[in-house]
Design brief:
- The chain is α+β, with helices and mostly antiparallel strands.
- The protein folds into three domains: 140 residues, Dipeptide-binding Protein, domain 1, CATH 3.90.76; 109 residues, Periplasmic binding protein-like II (D-Maltodextrin-Binding Protein, domain 2), CATH 3.40.190.10; 204 residues, Dipeptide-binding Protein, domain 3.
- Helix content is 26%, strand content 21%.
- The protein has 16 helices and 21 strands.
- A hairpin with a 2-residue loop joins β2 and β3.
- The chain is globular and about 65 Å long.
Length: 540
């Protein structure tokens, strides 16, 4: 789903450019097994940011999770396992108690304590702090709909650290415990107070720490970032979960078209999956034929969208017309070779909250032109269509979209940018339409995208009814009642159509047989849940 909120995307990475040093890779690294080897992982999208609390791109989130831990992890949908926290419990679904792992330490030897958790949540809620995690803490007492505290206030009411291993916080109303465990437990990366406390919240995003964290909590430590080329890690021997079994890890950033070849030569041992390292389906049969590689194709919770600027297309009929103009089945059949699904809205078939009774928008060029005409669209008006590079299938889908739009007489002009630039333009609403891949959560709250104050609202969508239902859904503790609310929301979003989901593409997980433990999992957000246990064949 990304670097800054609505401000200066990518300035930090420009500074990282000074660290660029070419990285040599040997094709057989890791093949002999043993704890001293290096694991190479192939990925496509470079991280837009290394700031653990200010990321909205999957590439950045994936990169950080090797080195920085959350309170919990989620290896499978709604299955939560300990990370920095041994548990998050509540007797009334309103006051929650976090019990931390007593032996956890930062990579500099300092203990990880409840004060670090309190500091991190307060930092996210601070009005001066740049973060993409505001939506994750909006249920807490004392913060507004964006997850921010009132001006001048720096501490979330009710958020306390009674002792070094206990954190207590309260929510405005009773909430689903799984919501808290996922949105706060598995999504909020804990920051080191002793390293950052003297830095003003407004300056964290530009700090040395945010460029490449040098005090970390995870199984690996960052050692070097070569911009747009590689991210290097070294094992943290003092990791509270046990020393990693693989000493070094290098994430190689490359075009998707290179992944199959690098797997074949052994230059990489696995792909990162999850939309940021997916092997093109045109190469799937080839990769499946590699005798030394295990390959699986898994459905995902991620999806690709076309986001409409609602200021440009002010009438919902215009957006509906654009939706009817798009042949999404052609994209799934021709580009994904059937390895995907067409859906409307932010929930795929992997979500228990998908309303399967809703019919998806049909491909109907005549109806598309009729709706646009009735809404008063000027067909001579130029439409600025922004497409990010890096994901070849998404780039090729843009070709089909252009054909579809031109077929009904629209004047669409496409411009391509790298992902960080695309995201910056999308946040600034410097587009009429933009392609964007997203991966949210199993929990159905998607306020980040659909709320009028959402940190990832790239369309300008502002619906009081949607805002009201989103708040109700987030505040409802009963699962059955939540289903009804999100069914209403799906119908509303389909009628308003600020965002059209183009398709959800399945993910190819290819892992060398030299790797006994590790690789992308069927539930991709849980891929790195056990990264410290990844091991080569024959490792002790």
């Amino acid at each position: 789903m990304s670097a800054r909120t609505t401000y200066r995307l990518g300035a930090g990475l420009a500074a990282i450019g000074l660290l660029v040093i070419p990285t040599a890779c040997t094709g057989n690294a890791g093949s002999s097994g043993g704890g001293g080897d290096t694991l190479y992982v192939g990925t496509v999208n470079p991280p837009a940011s290394f700031n653990p609390i200010n990321q909205s791109d999957v590439g950045g989130q994936f990169a950080v999770r090797f080195a920085m831990d959350t309170l919990l992890d989620q290896p499978e949908p709604l299955k939560f396992v300990p990370k920095l926290a041994e548990s998050i419990e509540s007797k009334d679904n309103k006051t929650f108690t976090v019990k931390l792992h007593a032996g956890a330490k930062w990579s500099d030897g300092q203990p990880i304590t409840a004060k670090d958790v309190v500091y991190t949540i307060n930092l996210i809620a601070n009005r001066e702090s740049l973060t993409t995690l505001g939506g994750n803490v909006t249920a807490l007492t004392g913060v507004d709909a964006t997850g921010k505290l009132p001006k001048g206030q720096t501490a979330v009411p009710g958020l306390t650290a009674p002792d070094d291993t206990t954190v207590v916080f309260t929510t405005k109303t009773p909430v689903d415990p799984n919501y808290v465990k996922e949105m706060i437990g598995t999504k909020v990366v804990i920051m080191p107070e002793h390293t950052l406390a003297k830095t003003a919240p407004a300056q964290i995003d530009d700090s040395k720490f945010a460029q490449l964290p040098d005090v970390t909590s995870g199984p690996y430590k960052f050692t070097k970032y070569t911009q747009n080329a590689s991210i290097e890690y070294a094992a943290n021997p003092d990791y509270y979960g046990g020393a990693p079994k693989i000493a070094k890890l290098i994430m190689k950033i490359m075009p998707a078209s290179n992944l199959a070849g690098e797997l074949q030569t052994g230059s990489i041992m696995m792909n990162s999956g999850g939309g940021i390292g997916n092997i093109p389906f045109q190469d799937l049969k080839t990769v499946q034929g590699f005798k030394d590689v295990n390959t699986k194709v898994n459905p995902t919770i991620g999806f690709q969208t076309i986001q409409f600027n609602v200021k440009t297309f002010a009438d919902p009929r215009m957006r509906a017309g654009l939706a009817h103009a798009i042949n999404r089945k052609q994209i799934v059949d021709e580009l994904l070779l059937g390895n995907g699904e067409v859906i409307d809205g932010p929930y795929t078939s992997q979500s228990p909250f998908l309303d399967k009774s809703l019919k998806t928008f049909s491909y109907d060029p005549a109806l598309a032109k009729k709706l646009l005409t009735e809404a008063g669209w000027d067909f001579s008006r130029k439409i600025n269509f922004v497409v990010p590079t890096g994901n070849k299938i998404r780039e090729r889908s843009a070709d089909i979209l252009l054909q579809n739009f031109k077929a009904i007489g629209l004047n669409v002009v496409q411009t391509n940018y790298d992902f960080p630039t695309t995201l910056a333009k999308a946040r600034a609403k410097d587009h009429d339409m933009v392609l964007m891949g997203l991966t949210f959560n199993i929990d159905p709250d998607v306020s980040n995208m659909y709320s009028s104050t959402g940190s990832f609202n790239l369309t300008g969508y502002n619906s009081p009814e949607s805002d009201k239902l989103l708040l109700a859904g987030k505040s409802e503790a009963k699962t059955d009642a939540r289903h009804k609310i999100y069914n209403q929301l799906q119908a509303l979003w389909q009628a308003d159509m600020p965002v059209l989901t183009l398709y959800s593409d399945h993910a190819v997980a290819a892992t060398s047989k030299s790797v006994a433990v590790g690789g992308a999992t069927p539930f991709w957000p849980g891929t790195v849940a056990n990264v410290g246990q990844w091991a080569f064949e024959g490792a002790n």
